[in-house]
Amino acid sequence: MREIEFRGFSFGDGPDLVRITGPDGNERFCSGRWLPGSLVRWADGDTSILRSDPDDDSDQLSQYFVLPETVGEWTGYCDKNGRRIYEGDRVRLSGDNWTDAPETAEIELHAGCWCASYPSVAWSFLVAKVKDAEVIGTVYDPEVTGDDRA
Asked: What SS3 state is found at 139?
């Protein structure tokens, strides 16, 4: 059975920084941290991640509110370093099995399949690329922009 997990960006105290483009087209930067867990979308429009605290031995879940636009589902795949690949991640495609120059791809759901979208190809099935993939960030990282990402 496939494990279902989501990840979202919890704003507030944390070491990470994301760049969010609002509906008005203006960019804003938020500090916080990325959190994996179970997704809850509330009737009032709020979005949160439920997860147990890894430092706590109890089975109690904690709720963390996250920016809804940053939520991505785990694809079920890990990169060549064993890091989980989520929807919205950017991966570098390179290695012994990658004959082309390294490229940066964005992970997205396309026609019901997890795909890698990169400059030389509109999209390709992620399962065919995962052994050559290395997670380098997310589409929300402020320092990873433009086509010169590789």
From this structure: coil
| pLDDT tens by residue, 2-16 | 789 999 999 887 888
Residues 22 and 144: their CA atoms lie apart, in Å, by 18
Alpha carbon distance 131, 137 (integer Å): 17
Q: Hey, what are 111's tokens?
A: 């026609």
DSSP-assigned states of every residue in 28-78: EEEEEEEEEEEEEE-TTS-EEEEEE-TT--S--EEEEE--GGG-EEEEEEE
Contacts of residue 112, defined as CB under 8 A and 6 or more positions apart, other chains included, come to none
Q: How buried is residue 136: exposed, middle or buried, by Cβ count under 10 Å (0-12/13-18/19+)?
A: middle
- In sequence order, what are the residues at sequence separation of 6 or more whose Cβ sits closer than 8 angstroms to the Cβ of residue 135? 79, 81, 83, 84, 85, 89, 90, 91
Q: Report the 10 Å Cβ neighbour count for 81.
A: 8
pTM of the model: 0.82
Q: Are 85 and 137 in contact (CB under 8 A)?
A: no
Residue 45 carries which side chain, given as an amino acid letter?
A: G
Q: Among candidates 6, 84, 11, which has minimal Cα distance to 49?
A: 6
